[in-house]
Every structure is written in C-alpha cells, then in structure tokens.
Design brief:
Low-confidence stretches: none
Strand order of the largest sheet: 4-3-2-1-9-8-7-6-5
Shape: elongated
Number of helices: 2
Strand content: 35-45%
Distance between the termini: 85 Å
Order of helices and strands: HEEEEEEEEEH
Radius of gyration: 24 Å
Mean pLDDT: 82
Structural class: alpha+beta
C-alpha cells in the first residue's frame, strides 16, 4: 500500500513539473510578444505616417461621453496633421457658429517623441493651428497601439480621447498632402 501511495505521489510531482515550466515559457512568450508589438508601434509612430482612430471621449471633468457615439480621427503625414474630433465642453472664445467639433489641417509644430522605457510606451507631442485656434496634443501610446489623446486648446476646455494607432490606408495619405 505504501508503494502505491509513493508511486501516486511521484506521478503527481512529475505531472506538476511541466506545468510550472509551461507557465515560465508563457511569461517569456508574453514578454516577447509585448516587445515585438512595441517595436512595431515605435517604427510606425517614428515614421510620422499613421492614423489615430478615436472611439471614446472624456470631458474636462473626466466624464465619459462616449454614449453619444463619438468618433474621430487624427492623420499624421510627414509634417502635416489633419483631424476631425468631437468636442463636448466649454468654448471660451469662438466666432459665432464655430462651437461644434474640432477640425484642423496644417503643419505640425513642436513635435517630439519620448520613450517611457519601463512601461515600453511612447509619448507623441505636437501642436497644430486650426481655424482661429491652436491645439496642443499629448498622446500616450501603449505597446499594443492603444492610446490616450490629451488635447489643450487656446479657446476651449481641456478634453481627452482614447483610441488606437494604425498604419495609414492609401486613401488617407492622399487626402492629407498639401
């Protein structure tokens, strides 16, 4: 009887070894996939040819107003930024009839790309003029391409968005050239 228990314990012990090795491999595989995703995202962002698709909007108070089905986009091509973003919030100084969304199509100024080494993320910053306003963007980009866009304006309240970074489609790059 002792022999049966000893053999049973031996099988249980040996059976658990591959599981722990498998967990270690999956952790290493996950780190490798994360690094690969980060490298792809980094190359895309540093090429200055990408698109940000907006799917969520947060007002200055932090309220999620995505229930109104907001969508928008920012297209970066070389030194030009073009965008159409929803806006919910206070406008301080706008000409009559211009209280709707945020639109811009102009040269990028003060562009910088910073890398957060520990989090393996990027911070993409720039400013662009649009109509009678200047917009300053601070975009936190995760390794997977998900991003948070923080927007400050001279004439409107602060607003933030979340979305994802993706490569430009052929039609996007032809619309944004000057």
């Amino acid at each position: 009887m002792k022999t049966v228990w000893l053999i049973l314990l031996l099988f249980l012990f040996v059976g658990s070894l591959p599981v722990s090795a498998q967990k270690k491999n999956s952790k290493e595989e996950k780190a490798a996939r994360l690094e690969e995703a980060f490298q792809k995202t980094q190359v895309l962002v540093k090429s200055n040819h990408f698109k940000i698709n907006i799917d969520r909007v947060y007002t200055q108070s932090g309220q999620d107003v995505s229930r109104f089905n907001p969508s928008g986009e920012i297209i970066i091509t070389d030194s030009v930024a073009k965008g159409n973003l929803p806006f919910f919030g206070r406008a301080y100084s706008l000409p009559y009839g211009e209280g709707g969304g945020i639109e811009f199509d102009g040269p990028v100024k003060d562009r910088s790309i910073l890398e957060k080494k520990k989090k393996r993320a990027l911070i993409y910053q720039f400013s662009v003029a649009g109509g009678n306003d200047t917009y300053q963007f601070n975009i936190d980009i995760a390794p997977s391409g998900g991003c948070t866009v923080n927007l400050m304006s001279n004439n409107r309240a602060y607003i933030s968005y979340s979305g994802s970074v993706s490569p430009l489609e052929e039609k996007d790059s032809t619309h944004s050239t000057h």
